[in-house]
Write a structure and sequence with these properties.
CATH superfamily of the largest domain in chain A: MoaB/Mog-like domain
Shape of chain A: globular
Largest sheet of chain A: 6 strands, mixed
CATH topology of the largest domain in chain A: Molybdenum Cofactor Biosythetic Enzyme, Chain A
Number of helices of chain A: 16
Largest interface: A-B, 88 and 89 residues
Oligomer: homodimer
CATH class of the largest domain in chain A: Alpha Beta
Helix content of chain A: 40-55%
Strand order of the largest sheet of chain A: 2-1-3-8-7-6
Radius of gyration of chain A: 26 Å
Distance between the termini of chain A: 51 Å
Number of strands of chain A: 17
Chain lengths: 417, 417
């Protein structure tokens, strides 16, 4: 089992301007491969601080992951520290130069001199190419310890981890016989405490499998994990506990692989060769946005409308003015007419809709903030379901979108009739 | 000037299950009072780790803030570490006992023995009462250094900071004459390096103001900060440097207060009493979603459509089939017809649109992934602007949405004609 220290460089972390999500990401990934995170150190863009963090980390761990301070401007000092710490100098790296040049060519911008400088890399480093930005990463070995330096921009760092570093670490973990296995069961539509009650006597249920519940506005993730030198044992135990959990709460588990419900729905729609369209009021485009995050979603997503005004509900969806007048825009009837309207107008199999009061304003005596109707319409069935969420606008949008996608999933799978 | 180390205790932080927002909060608060955060250390619930982190922190700082590990269960070891580290023992603390007892009475639950144990506190500690939970905090002085121990539950920790600790620190900072000021300039539409080049000789430009560049896919934040014993000097210097920066790059700065462009645009639209509508193809609802994140956006946002299919572009926007056939759905002409269509159909002042190839599929020999057209239409002007982004689908959506909102901002402000 190898120990890891993660060093996050950047004043913005210390002063609380940036939350250190990079360290969480790296910690999660390395844990899942079978490494043990000993410590996370966040320091500013200060040479002495960086050098002393490197030294301390080398003393207490085998692998050191460093992010931040590799940008082209004056406040980025990590590369200079590398030269000092590893007693090396800079060499021109042709591939990196070409890569950076291409980045600017694609953007149709002349390449500034400070970016050209980024093609000079520490002699002792193996370069980790950056798919999304100019700064290369470095993989450096010293006295049996290994250092990975990556940019602090999250998606640049993540691409380096996924494409280059993690595959090597997985290989390393296999050789070390440190076997970590985990399985995540993604649930939605049920609170953590209700889930827990449904499971019953968890001590006997889980045995020696480590089980963690991770709630968020999208649902509760249940993580089962085992770390031992016995791979088959880990797998067998996790499988057993998963089976027991599924026996009790299977309908709430929408995936054991994919967190984002829109990907699950995309798969089902492609399998069933069905097309959908969505009419959003209170979610304001969030559902369409999530659906279109899936590559290839144009195959099954025909269109969406964000009918924020009453006029647009009438014009684009054929909602009857009387319905809005009599029951209000936030009502079961309006939700159903919206779902029907988008289905008929866009010639798809399923139309669905959202209408609600997201806050902070808009509440009336009988319609509080958080009141939401989700409408559904296919050629056999039409209905709307009522929800009562809380009073944070953004969170209400997120919860409504998640509930709407889960409702779609349940009907596509025949879980509800 | 006093230096601070923040120690965050908890396995959940190391394995990436919890993002360390406590440290960000403490860092932000202490910075704003005039203290300097030297380092944030995250460690697990391990006695040796905690003891060595305390020792290291005492060596490099004056104030040490520790959160986590004060709960009543077996995996909470911080109090035991305190006994070891400060060579002290536990004493019964009557007030804490009463406070915990009251908490359980209020919840109508008998008080478990493990919570009664929490009324025993380190003899050397001044107790910080917990308004929301059982675990008390501790304020401990040793050799001129000061240690604050707080629970890891965010709202319990925050209440201790706000009510007890920060008032004392503010007083301390006043006595020490340590004054910190900062200003953030939010820019978009220009890469970090180009921004830097436009600024020219930054050494002379910035003088002794600390300037940091923080890039993301939404733009580059420029943070100006000063820490000195002279409050008016700080303010004057920051103002001066801000003025110099604005002289060179003013059009790229969209705010010095608010990060999210949709809030800026909302303000302008309300001031100018203009209404907008958006026709999205490649952004798939992301723009409408961002616009409707703003409370009160229904005042100026009439509707949005997500015209993912060609058919929907024709039906909902009146895009001519010949235009799509001749130039393609991703073209200048289509973008303009989309913007015009949404403007006319929804009877608003400004219509705008996005169409592009987000990837990973959909590229053709002359239309690469990342090619985007943003269309604009008001009663005087119609045009589309071409962009070349990169090849990550989600990032392309985010960059396109940001560019579209910035284009809208620029035209609303008369920056472009």
């Amino acid at each position: 089992m190898k120990n890891v220290v993660i060093i996050s460089i950047g004043d913005e972390i210390l002063i609380g301007q940036t939350i250190n999500t990079n360290a969480s990401y790296i910690g999660e990934k390395l844990t899942s491969v079978g490494f043990v995170i000993k410590r996370i150190i966040s320091i500013g863009d200060e040479k002495l601080e960086i050098l002393s963090a490197l030294k301390e980390s080398e003393e207490i761990s085998d692998l050191i992951f460093v992010t931040g301070g590799l940008g082209p401007t004056h406040d980025d000092v990590t590369r200079t520290c590398i030269l000092d710490y590893f007693k090396t100098d800079l060499v021109f790296h042709e591939e990196t130069f070409k890569r950076i040049k291409k980045l600017f060519e694609r953007r149709n911008i002349p390449m500034p001199e400070i970016n050209r400088q980024q093609a000079f890399v520490p002699r002792c480093a193996k370069v980790i190419p950056n798919d999304f930005g100019t700064a290369p990463g470095y993989d450096i070995q010293k006295n049996g310890k290994r250092f990975f330096f990556m940019p602090g921009v999250p998606h640049e760092m993540k691409a380096m981890m996924e494409n280059v570093i993690l595959p090597q670490l997985k290989e390393m973990a296999r050789e070390l016989k440190a076997f970590y296995h985990q399985k995540i069961l993604y649930t939605t539509g049920i609170p953590e405490s209700a889930l827990f009650s449904k499971l019953g006597d968890v001590k006997n249920l889980f045995e020696d499998v480590k089980v963690a519940f991770l709630p968020s506005q999208f649902g509760v993730k249940i993580r089962l994990s085992m770390l031992s030198d016995n791979e088959p044992y880990n797998l067998r135990k996790i499988e057993l506990v998963e089976k027991r959990i599924r026996e009790k709460i299977s309908e709430y588990i929408y995936s054991d692989e994919i967190q984002d419900l829109e990907f699950i729905i995309g798969k089902i729609l492609q399998e069933k060769k069905l097309k959908i369209a969505v009419a959003e009021s209170c979610t304001g485009g969030l559902i369409a946005n999530r659906i279109t995050n899936v590559p290839g979603s144009s195959e099954y997503f025909e269109r969406g409308v964000v009918t924020y005004s009453n006029q647009s509900k009438i014009e684009l969806l054929g909602v009857k003015p009387e319905t809005i007048e009599k029951y209000g825009a936030v009502s079961e009837k309006t939700a159903i007419e919206m779902a029907r309207g988008i289905r008929l107008n866009s010639h798809v199999d399923i139309g669905f809709s959202t209408t609600g009061i997201m806050g902070p304003t808009g509440a009336t005596p009988d319609k509080p903030i958080g009141l939401v109707f989700i409408g559904y319409s296919d050629s056999n069935k039409e209905f709307a379901r009522k929800f009562n969420f809380a009073d944070n606008r953004i969170r209400n949008k997120e919860r409504t979108a998640q509930a709407a996608l889960d409702l779609l999933r349940r009907y596509l799978l025949g879980l509800e009739h």
